[in-house]
């Protein structure tokens, strides 16, 4: 299959081995880089870097109302990157029309799909849900196939995701 006809999917940049995490490390994922890369054209996205937060950067976590949490600094609670992340994500939504799927990093305050902790003001985990980037993309593109690297490690689940992406691309 030639490169141009493979379905294009966006992937959290750290999963592709790019050193974009807050501490300048990556989360290289062999399954995505060496298996799924043969079937899909992979496009890197890092909402935090693309929002201009830099590398390295202070770590953030979701805090407050679980339905509308803020992304606040872990060490500096006065650091609030919610607006920057939201602004970037809204500008990125048009690019979502050119992809057929998303693979996102689990538990991230930006990329997590369903398991990102949301903290209360005392620093206790009160719930889990999507990160800021994922939340907005899900709202605007609910049919777009999305998954994270933890669920894709299950071969049966991975096969389902591949089929969903192929079906979405063939619409
Ligand atoms: S989880 Fe998302 S925001 Fe965090 S480093 Fe990876 S791509 Fe960037």
Itemize the secondary structure elements and their pairings.
Layout: E1 8-12, H1 30-39, E2 41-45, H2 47-50, E3 60-63, E4 70-73, H3 82-92, E5 102-104, E6 116-119, E7 125-129, H4 132-140, E8 146-148, H5 149-152, H6 155-169
Parallel strand pairs: 1-2, 1-5, 3-6, 5-8
Antiparallel strand pairs: 3-4, 6-7
Iron/sulfur cluster binds next to helix 2.
Task: Summarize, please.
By secondary structure, the chain is of the alpha/beta class. It has six helices and eight strands.
Can you tag this structure with a few keywords?
single chain; 171 residues; four-stranded parallel sheet; four-stranded mixed sheet; 8 strands; binds iron/sulfur cluster
Question: Would you kindly provide a written description of the structure presented here, covering whatever features stand out?
Answer:
The chain has helices spanning 30-39, 47-50, 82-92, 132-140, 149-152, 155-169, and strands spanning 8-12, 41-45, 60-63, 70-73, 102-104, 116-119, 125-129, 146-148. It has 171 residues and is α/β, with parallel strands linked by helices. The protein has one domain (3-169). The strands form two sheets. Strands 2-1-5-8 form a four-stranded parallel beta sheet. A four-stranded mixed beta sheet has the order 4-3-6-7, with no helix packed on it. β1, α1 (30-39) and β2 (41-45) form a beta-alpha-beta unit. The longest helix is centred in the C-terminal third of the chain and has 15 residues, at 155-169. It is globular. The two termini are 19 Å apart. The structure holds iron/sulfur cluster. Iron/sulfur cluster (SF4) is lined by residues 12-14, 20-21, 46-48, 105, 108, 110-111. Residues 12-14, 20-21, 46-48, 105, 108, 110-111 line the site of iron/sulfur cluster.
């Amino acid at each position: 299959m030639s490169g141009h006809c493979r379905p294009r999917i966006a992937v959290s940049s750290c999963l592709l081995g790019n050193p974009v995490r807050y501490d300048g490390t990556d989360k290289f994922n062999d399954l995505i880089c060496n298996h799924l890369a043969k079937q899909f054209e992979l496009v890197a996205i890092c909402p935090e870097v693309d929002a201009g937060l830099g590398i390295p950067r202070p770590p953030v976590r979701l805090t407050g109302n679980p339905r509308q949490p803020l992304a606040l600094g872990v060490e500096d609670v006065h650091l609030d990157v919610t607006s920057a992340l939201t602004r970037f994500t809204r500008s990125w939504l048009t690019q979502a029309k050119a992809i057929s799927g998303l693979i996102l990093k689990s538990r991230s305050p930006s990329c997590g799909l369903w398991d990102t902790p949301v903290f209360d003001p005392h620093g206790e985990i009160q719930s889990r849900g999507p990160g800021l980037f994922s939340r907005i993309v899900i709202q605007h593109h609910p049919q777009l196939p999305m998954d994270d690297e933890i669920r894709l490690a299950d071969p049966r689940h991975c096969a389902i995701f591949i089929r969903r992406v192929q079906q979405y691309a063939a619409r």
